[in-house]
Amino acid sequence: MVLPLMKLGTLLVKTVSKPLASQLKHQAKVHPKFRQSIINFAQRNHRITTQMQRRIYGHATDVEIRPLDEEKAVQAAVDLIGELFLFGVGGAVVVFEVQRGSRSEARKEEARKQELEELRLKDEALEKQVADLKIKLEELEQLAKARGLSGTIQLKPQPSTTSSGAAAKSS
Q1: Fewest CB within 10 angstroms: 33, 73, 108, 127, which?
Q2: Residue 40 domain-assigned?
Q3: Is residue 161 part of a domain?
Q4: CA-CA distance, 50 to 63, in Å (whole number)?
Q5: Where is the composition biased (Low complexity) (predicted)?
Q6: pTM of the entire structure?
Q7: Are 68 and 46 in contact (CB under 8 A)?
Q8: 143 in any annotated domain
């Protein structure tokens, strides 16, 4: 369920980022300060990525890096901003899902704790009832011994040996 929604969300973000990129291109043409700032941004990015690529491939890094022409710089900056936008939205979706999952787990854990507490309280109540019943049983046994009823009230049935013994017990 989550995976199709993620794909749909990614497609939506990509669809939204295309008009955003075209709007950035338009703004770069209209506003000279904005154009210059994204050109500078693209040139810095070009220098950094070129230096990283040279280091990775083992080429000389002290060689002068030629700057991009203005149109390529604007296009590179707009593409980079679009990708950063996609990355930001994707990261936000992941953070949202993690937080939602952790809140769900916290609710489940709280329900488990509450259930365990209810079981503990029920167990304590049952232990108290058993202790009260033991006390009452001891009191009954003591009363029976004190009155001498232990011989007349038999709690355990005993096997009868003769029928006359059973008649004597009933009378």
Answers
A1: 33
A2: yes
A3: no
A4: 11
A5: 160-171
A6: 0.52
A7: yes
A8: no
Total domains, the chain: 1
Q: Is residue 1 part of a domain?
A: no
Q: Supply the range of the domain harboring residue 37.
A: 11-114
In SS3 terms, the chain reads as CHHHHHHHHHHHHHHHHHHHHHHHHHHHHHCHHHHHHHHHHHHHHHHHHHHHHHHHHCCCCCCCCCCCCHHHHHHHHHHHHHHHHHHHHHHHHHHHHHHHHHHHHHHHHHHHHHHHHHHHHHHHHHHHHHHHHHHHHHHHHHHHHHHCCCCCCCCCCCCCCCHHHHHHHHC
pLDDT tens-place string over residues 31-89: 888 889 988 989 999 999 998 988 888 877 777 888 889 888 888 887 787 777 778 77
Determine which of 9-18, 27-36, 89-98 has the lowest per-residue pLDDT on average. 9-18
pLDDT over threshold 70, residue 103: yes
**Highest mean pLDDT (candidates 5-9, 66-70, 163-167):** 66-70
